Amino acid sequence: MTRRPRIPVPEDFTAPSHSSLVAARLGLWLGVAFGLCFVTGVLSHYIQHPPGWFTWPSRPVNLYRITQGTHVLSGIAAIPLLLAKLWSVYPRLFARPPVRHPIRLSAHALERISVLVLVCAAFFELVTGLFNVAQSYPWGFFFPAAHYAVAWLLAGGVLLHIAVKLPIVRAALNTPLRRDDRDSSGRRAFLRTAAGVAGVAVLATAGVTVPWLRRVSPLAWRSATGPQGVPINRTAAAAHITVPPDWRLEIVWTGGRNVFSLAELAALPQRTANLPIACVEGWSASADWTGVPVVDLLRLVGAPTDRAVRISSLETHGLYATSTLPATHVGDLLTLLALRINGEELSPDHGYPCRLIAPSRPGVLQTKWLARLEVLR
């Protein structure tokens, strides 16, 4: 008679990597990575879609570059840490529910639900985030909205999981990894490997946002190459841009209107500033931008300088054909209507004849191919 295979139980998995001491430490590291990723991701969402109470400073000029670089790199670090964490705890999937104890059964079910939500949300965030940095969207939903919503779901799953597992986690973190037996050596080796792989993953990609690491970041998805030495995401051809021969920049405010030709803008006092383009995909690159400060142009025509300004592009379709420049950025002398980059006239792909460049602002909001500035009430 053939014997039925026995279903394993957690006690059958004796490898040192399956210890609660390992799982707790990996969970702590993963929590830090997810925490950084969540906070910086929410900031990025609020910068692009600000609620009424939210403000974002224009200085330091690299602030958004730092926060968004942290967002993407912490997400990359979380990938190997998540895989290591799942490896360390997967034997717990074989734990049998206490069917004869209704209260314990409910706790067991709550734990399993929290784990399911946590794992599914984590994989969704990390996988779609990787596709986003590669600018590939093989799905039918709008990535920013879905990524933001699931981030809150992931945060809730983490908090629920911590609440359920807190006694075990506290005990495990308070237990030292002893150095006098084989299991302790195996646990330390597994933790060192997980941390090392996470560190290598970050180092291999950090050049996208840390300029001095570009030579040692073979997996960086952007570099300093591109038109006029700066990468781009969207070309003039992709945006179907045709600049009319009689192009004018229109400035509108309550009770007034003015227009400037390219020659008239170029004849005004110019300012040059070294500012980064920092994109939501995590890459960033600095350049010397030359143009007219927005606040100076508004003063020149007699328009208010303490209000937000709606920026409109020659690109009439798409999510970023217009953007709103907050009053804080309007009043900053480093917020330019740029006409030149690195000493050269803007190429079409960089926004010729005129583009916005402002400090501490996402690249998707640095509107190119400007057509109109409207001072809001």
TrEMBL record:
One of its GO terms (molecular function) is oxidoreductase activity. It holds the Pfam family Oxidored_molyb. The keyword Iron does not apply. Keywords: Membrane, Transmembrane, Transmembrane helix. Residues 244-376 form the Oxidoreductase molybdopterin-binding domain. The keyword Metal-binding does not apply. It comes from Micromonospora taraxaci. InterPro entries: Mopterin_OxRdtase_euk (IPR008335), OxRdtase_Mopterin-bd_dom (IPR000572), OxRdtase_Mopterin-bd_sf (IPR036374). This is Molybdopterin-dependent oxidoreductase-like protein. The chain crosses the membrane at residues 26-48, 68-88, 109-133, 145-168, 189-213.
